[in-house]
Queue: 2 jobs
Job 1
Amino acid sequence: MKKASLLLLILFSVITTKAQDSLMLRKFFDEALVNGKCYENLRYLCKNIGPRLSGSAGAQTSVEWSKKLMDGYGFDKVYLQEVMVPHWVRGAKEHGFIIDGTTRIAVPIAALGMSVATPKEGITANVIEVQSLKELETLGEAAIKGKIVFFNRAFDPRFIETGAAYGGAGDQRFAGPAAAAKYGAVGAIVRSLTESLDDYPHTGTTGYDPQGGNIPAAAISTIAANKLSTMLKMRKLPLIKFYFKQNCQHLPAAKSYNVIGEITGTQNPNKFITVGGHLDSWDLAEGAHDDGTGVMQSVEVLRIFKSTGYRPKNSVRAVFFMNEENGHKGGTKYAELAAANKEEHIAAIETDEGGYTPRGFSFQGVSSSFLKDVNKNWKKLLEPYEADRLIAGGGGTDIGPLKETLPSIVLIGFRPDSQRYFDIHHTPNDVFENVNKRELELGAGSIASLIYLIDQHGF
Amino acid sequence: MKKASLLLLILFSVITTKAQDSLMLRKFFDEALVNGKCYENLRYLCKNIGPRLSGSAGAQTSVEWSKKLMDGYGFDKVYLQEVMVPHWVRGAKEHGFIIDGTTRIAVPIAALGMSVATPKEGITANVIEVQSLKELETLGEAAIKGKIVFFNRAFDPRFIETGAAYGGAGDQRFAGPAAAAKYGAVGAIVRSLTESLDDYPHTGTTGYDPQGGNIPAAAISTIAANKLSTMLKMRKLPLIKFYFKQNCQHLPAAKSYNVIGEITGTQNPNKFITVGGHLDSWDLAEGAHDDGTGVMQSVEVLRIFKSTGYRPKNSVRAVFFMNEENGHKGGTKYAELAAANKEEHIAAIETDEGGYTPRGFSFQGVSSSFLKDVNKNWKKLLEPYEADRLIAGGGGTDIGPLKETLPSIVLIGFRPDSQRYFDIHHTPNDVFENVNKRELELGAGSIASLIYLIDQHGF
């Protein structure tokens, strides 16, 4: 009899907990959708501050404004975390031409981030097209030396999530130019990392060795890449050449900051759940989806907790990381200091895949039984918000270093719908107008909900 | 021993069937994503034909072009199904003004579809704002007579799917003007059915009684609706008036067509699975998401089957319905003829919620055990494509009449992500440029996959 009563009591408490959780999630979403502030905050960041590459004046302004924004919300702690960041500048707009005998065809290019400049007069050279870094090996120095290597492997459209296609083609941009340099190439042109056929070059960082030996590298639009490839295939003599000129510079490292806001935990002030995105952005646009949406969702989570009166048991921090795009210095610094300060970190959630409709979350390096439990406990609660795809997968670049300094942490990536992200990624089109208010707000509601569940129930 | 062997055989056959299904779905998605034709077909429909309201020259051109398109694909049957449709025309662009004493403020309005014209000189009258049809009752004739009724209930942002918010506010447009007329109103202005705050009036059909007694009715942009509402609240004397003039006409019913393509079933030629959207569209734009994407996905399903060499057991039909927007005559005709011809219909799937990323399908009026089975059998197969939300819900306007003539049919609605649909719905922004190629193609792959599963396994 006693046993049966105990069982009933447990059952009753499980049911009421689920009902309470369900009510809280509804509260968070209502707050995000009815009184949401992230869309207007994003408008300010994009339209009044704009581009904010590490070391730039825009980055500094965004740090100061972000701190003020958090101060205004009255969180328990708001502070800056100093970090030295690379300071790369693009300089005057690049020029690129396909040279077909005496004809010069202008094509849209953009220097890859961290690339070196060309000589003042630009570079003109024959072009060799490759599909992979491996192909460089096969071709060898004889075929490559003195040429511009044109990396032209396209996105594989068969991947359902576009991030996988980005992963599949990305090594050309990250590592291609440095690899080509080893075989004596004088420059590198990389097909833009997008499936979209358009005339925008997509910038992004490429490997840079401060010891030297770097060659200038630029992204070329996908339409121009197709044109160049076709011309290379059709025209044998005179050989197709390529000309480009870019003016980028590496300036001395600059002082910058992560911006951090915190609601201190009522029960475990030294246990932390972090939610963050990155404040820096490429120089070509406004860094709206990459990653203005992520930082604005992160601070919105804390605002939602305050507005709905939810006091977390553990400390919850919104972190605006600096320098995700070309150095990861902010994420590295945050992880170092977390360990140095002997903080205990339960989980970190990164939102850096655009402010699109939420689909769910990915859990990094967890066991299948962990994932099964998470699904069993929380999937049903997130289902009404269509943010219930709880899968194995990456956490994110900025939170990655936490796993090294604090191995027991659980790293989680927010997963919005991925279809449109690489259409605008690292291009002049990454602007506020391409963000949908409701999609952004639903993301904030989803992240607040997951953090609440972790805070209440742990893993 | 025999029993165990039989069990093993069944188990083996279940496993190989699942594996085969899985391979086929992958094939359909690869075809949609690598060799997809729906995006370029949609471009033609939007850019070369454009608006195609029932009875218009555009509608007729779109019928002819659609038949040619299907003929070109070499389906087993391609034919037109004659249907008489209403022929309403907007006429010269409307004008609307808020009149505040001697000041006239121009505001964006658009006549609701099927509305009558104002007198040539327009209508000027005092305005009474209401939030619901019920409020008309409360106010009564004394308060309403001689006035313009302004229906201003906004979308409820708390709904996660925007279709629910549309449903919650939609009666104002469908039934509001006719209800106001009964109380002696001289005109009706309806807040645009969208959550988006913008300056576009969203048209759409309103109730029209051919016996007479109709009053002119127009949609007003949400920004202008907020302005009018604020002015009504703040300014008591002189009373705020509203002026509008519109020039629409009801012409005699016109002859038009549903366009139908069919792959005849190898085993059951007289059993049908229908997939369709509507070919007609509002006159203000290109009918891209509403519903160019739906018809182009429908024909793409048949093309995918042919290209991948899949021969369905049952006959599969793509139907481009005519007149969804202002009469539903095409859907009604299709259902009548299906019954008259003694066809057996297994299922009909409608795609008319935009060409956005697929989320899943809704099954109309099915039991919870039916839904449980569908999920048990098919959810896992659709999960890799993130189109696995199989829920109870509506089928669609065009397939609805089939349930009346053929009660055993299962009606299914394709459910893409809903967040952006009502931003552009029935406005000048419903254009090709707002459709994403991959999202559209993933939808076609999802629908082809579901039809394959129904064709192979039934319910």
Job 2
Amino acid sequence: MANGQTAEIYGIAAATGQRIDPAYPVSSLADVDAACRAADAAFDVYRATDAETRAAFLEEIAVEIERLGDSLIERAATESGLPVARITGERGRTIGQLRLFAAVVRDGRWREIRIDPAMPDRQPLPRPDLRLRMVPLGPVAVFGASNFPLAFSTAGGDTAAALAAGCSVVVKGHPAHPGTDAMIAGAIGRAVSTCGLPAGVFGHVRGPGNELGSALVAHPLIAAVGFTGSRGGGLALMRLAQERPVPIPVYAEMSSINPVVLMPAALAARGADLGRAFVASLTMGAGQFCTNPGLVVAVASDGLDAFEAAAAAALAAHAPQPMLTAGIRDAYARGTAALAGNAAVTQLATGLAGDGIASENARLFATDADAFLADRALGEEVFGASSLVVRCRDAEQVRAVLAGLEGQLTATIHLDQADHDAARPLISVLERRAGRVLANGWPTGVEVAHAMVHGGPFPATSDGRSTSVGTLAIDRFLRPVCYQDLPADLLPPELTDEAGGPRLVDGHPA
Amino acid sequence: MANGQTAEIYGIAAATGQRIDPAYPVSSLADVDAACRAADAAFDVYRATDAETRAAFLEEIAVEIERLGDSLIERAATESGLPVARITGERGRTIGQLRLFAAVVRDGRWREIRIDPAMPDRQPLPRPDLRLRMVPLGPVAVFGASNFPLAFSTAGGDTAAALAAGCSVVVKGHPAHPGTDAMIAGAIGRAVSTCGLPAGVFGHVRGPGNELGSALVAHPLIAAVGFTGSRGGGLALMRLAQERPVPIPVYAEMSSINPVVLMPAALAARGADLGRAFVASLTMGAGQFCTNPGLVVAVASDGLDAFEAAAAAALAAHAPQPMLTAGIRDAYARGTAALAGNAAVTQLATGLAGDGIASENARLFATDADAFLADRALGEEVFGASSLVVRCRDAEQVRAVLAGLEGQLTATIHLDQADHDAARPLISVLERRAGRVLANGWPTGVEVAHAMVHGGPFPATSDGRSTSVGTLAIDRFLRPVCYQDLPADLLPPELTDEAGGPRLVDGHPA
């Protein structure tokens, strides 16, 4: 607790439950306040930096993370229980993300510059000179996520996007990986220093419980919040942010069961193959992905039987890996027990029993569409390698199941050519409910790209108008300002006639 | 009330307080529900229309409004008390806005199409084909505003932007101009029919009180809200929208005092001219503009004395026009009485007394910066032709006054060349607090253009990330969707390789 009951926290090795040295001091509420004040003071300096300075800073963070070398990989793998190969890939993604945002900053399109030149002779009234650019919102609070200790955490997507936008950042490191968090925070701090930026550009606090995070979101100098975590946590932050004297935007990624629709021709052609590939996606990283395929929807058929049989066989041979934390493991156990105990639900398979702490094996359940439509609890996320097959009577029932879903990060459809006509109206249903619609693939890979959307209608996120992955994420932390008739020497440099860079003049690319 | 206590409402002539025939039936809660259901049913059809269909629809609304001819002008002028010339200009703006959005829809840049082509041979993992477009949010609830019976009302900016984005719309017409509202709703309805669109594309309800509007915002099929009105009204809608099982975005434009900074050299050179021009802006439309200059900030000087003297003289000669409604008149009377009764405030001038219902004359007050900084009430909006001059000791105090302001729609600075160096840091302060920063002009004209921002940090609006005027407003009602590896014949037409239109491919214009 931040009030002094606990003065320090330790990392816990996910595979053993053992405490790892060293201890890390828990931040106080005074630390939160100091970090926010420093972030606000640094904001005016940082937002005024030119594109090159800001891009070089993002690249320097990437270099500093690389310099941490194998010790970062080892620490993150130990704290998270995720395999070294996965963490190594995640580091590459994190570094690549920082470099991609550096390129975005240099490109300048994010400024959305628009110029409507003066028309002094227009009748009945002259038109003033109008120039628009995007400006950063202000200091941003970022919450590290447990399930991506690098890519969605201290130097993850929200931090990279906010820094790219010109916002200073205060990170609350996730207490499940304090060592990883401290190493990354150190790397960012060194980059701040190397680049000659004010220290407050990046602030950092840590601690268990909700008190610090609540204080951060409630702090009057914080202008926006980025969060990846549970539905309960996200809803609490949304409420806090709205109850402030000055409400602020919250980008919370919360809850998604990522429906996978299996169309009849695809099932008939390759039901068993789909079943095996599905289990590979379901069990990756112990199922601890926001995009984990937690729901399978299909018309009952021989092909679906083959899918289920192959999936069950694959799952039964799957050895569990330890989950991220004891809390996540307990929640998974509760969620799967509730499904197993539901009279309308059949358990199709369980994975291998693990040894020691890796006690939670993967699970595959089935129910029918009538039961699913009658019980909202069956549509709730169980974070981990658990999924539910919903067997439908006919295509109309598939449509009804999909139409009844809450907002989702992803929606997947497996189909063959013969399925296209029947799939078309379903895609229309899915795109109203999801941020990403994918065909003949699995939702668990989220490419960091210009065209990626990792977002979606509530409750997948608190704000379906944006993405937390990909270059469009920079928009989260920007707002437009119009400058009317400003003398040229008082205009922001990028808005002058002489400045290069992409712009619309009278609505057309110049 | 919608519960049947009052079955109909009448327009009131603002200049006389007299009831105008005919009566208009008040909508019931069942009407709200029916309009929302129809809007939802129409949404899937309407969002799938091509750009030409949607653009032609917007243009047809403009034609239908033109066809209403002088009877619209007369009715709007009578209900609002605004001069015929102003209403005529506002009609032109409303029609021009619809046509500008038609051009935006045809241009296609609003779709923000991004394509990251597949890289099947990439190592260690192939990249899927990713295609992003913006899609409409869903049915939008729009609240007509009292002070712009055309441009911010039934067929105003929010309606035009939402329809352009592909959203169906349910308007709650403002009860202060039910006749104008009915004429415009009829015009839109005819355009819907002419264009062969489902009737639910445009829904309309009317009634006094808050019950209907609350039901509209709480309706599960509504996906976003546009509102222009009081701070209390906007805050209530924000709360309602957040308390829904599925929270939705609210774009409420609420409260702004639009600071005007007078720099020393400008004041010295033309203090009296500035004073007269200021009063022209202040009293336009009885001061009933969201961008009305309600605060003047300057260092005490001979130039400021000249400004005040000229402003006081101009104001003293100003004859009032009737205000929009009795409620607005009463609120103005209370607000100005509070200022007049504040011991720290001096009344510099009052306008001429009006006759009859035009009883509320313009007011100009002054105070000093110490008093202003000590009393937050002095920074609250008084809707109408009232303004407060804050006399500062020095430039540092000007800065302190500006830095202490809440979020604003606009911030204005009057300056001469000799003021530029001192103005530069003030502009930096102002752009953190306002959606539009203007030099050597007055905030009351809001150009409908590509580079306009009519928005700003809370409480100017509920969401400073957008604008309610100008073409960027279409973004309010859009969210991104990514399509991954979709077969070409299942892609939305604008996302295919063959489609024309602006797009980024791997982040670069194609």
